[in-house]
What does this fold into?
Amino acid sequence: MKRTIIVASGNAHKIAELQSLLRECIDVDLVPMSDIIGRIDIDETGATFEENSYIKAQQVHALTGLPVIADDSGLIVDALDGEPGVFSARYAGPNASDASNRERVTQELATRGCETSTGRFSCVLCYIDSHRTLLADGHVQGLITNTVSGAGGFGYDPMFVPEGYAESYGQLPQSVKDATSHRAKAARALASMIKKLDDDTAMPHPPSMTILDGVCRSSIYAAEGDFDSLEHELLDWVVDTTSATAAYEAMLQTYLFAGFPIGLEALATLDSVLHQRNLVPQTRGFEQYNTSIFEQRGGELCSQVYGSVYEKMMTRFTAISPEITLWTIVEGYGKTLSRPGLEGIYRECAVVCTLATLGRRSQLYSHVRGARNLSATPEQLQVCADAIIECAGLQAYHLFAQVSS
It folds into this structure.
């Protein structure tokens, strides 16, 4: 499948290098963003390569609506406490040349009495289209020298000697750089991900995984209060009684973590979709309120989710407030989270996505652990991760990644 992708960069060297590397795995034409929208200034306000690549890709995608790849990369010098890092392209100033940036590194090394330093090149590539966000990174360790050697490459290449070699990237053949560089590693990883998109399109996901993805993404949009996106998402995957039931249960439980107004609006949005589809969930209004039943099954589920820390948690909660402890068991786990119509693992995944979106770190930690206690697979948790970064953004994804690591 031939792909045309916009590159959020004006660096001709980078674009040519990416084109060559990506074409090893996928059939792609890279088009500079200047050919589509002219030259624009993008404020690279991120603190990491990952954040900056996302910022650039997202902004160009918003302006064009087309698939975009953005690169953020740079040199990390150990003797300079990690500088120039994300400022690599402008280390000597806003309009710095490659030569002036190299000279600044040389000067900074000299002020510390260093002729060389260990360090690394790092690269993060971000791909965004209308359906997904992909991130891939690559790193290469080496030695940074205070001399410029060779006329090949660009940027800091002539002063970087990759690990295992005696010459700089400015001296080594391009074939060596293509095999070992940070950008090569990131490009191959990203190309593999993009290639898999074609495979996924040719081979539909199992229905259960489609429902899980829909449940996760819909829960995020509901938590954000983005009901237009929620309606589009529901229309995409709610197509039969099974998916209608799963969607109803997922939207119903949003009130537990995002509040009643959000829960009601989410259910109203779903109701509109169900009328368009002429569908009725199987479990809507299926049971009467029964405190004793809810308390029994809520305790069983809560114990299953929290595992070995359940008794300790209940003791702590009871000391703080017996009422909230009972409400957690009866209202949360008994009345809502143990309802039929949606598998327990899927419920926990939906909760995880909601809590990551809302930035609830301590609760998120508990429910990621709960999903694992319910035997959620790595593939299912990856569905959560993909939904979070695509629908809730990089900050929510970082929180999920930190908590789940």
Strands lie at 3-7, 28-32, 68-77, 116-128, 133-145, 160-162. The longest strand covers residues 116-128.
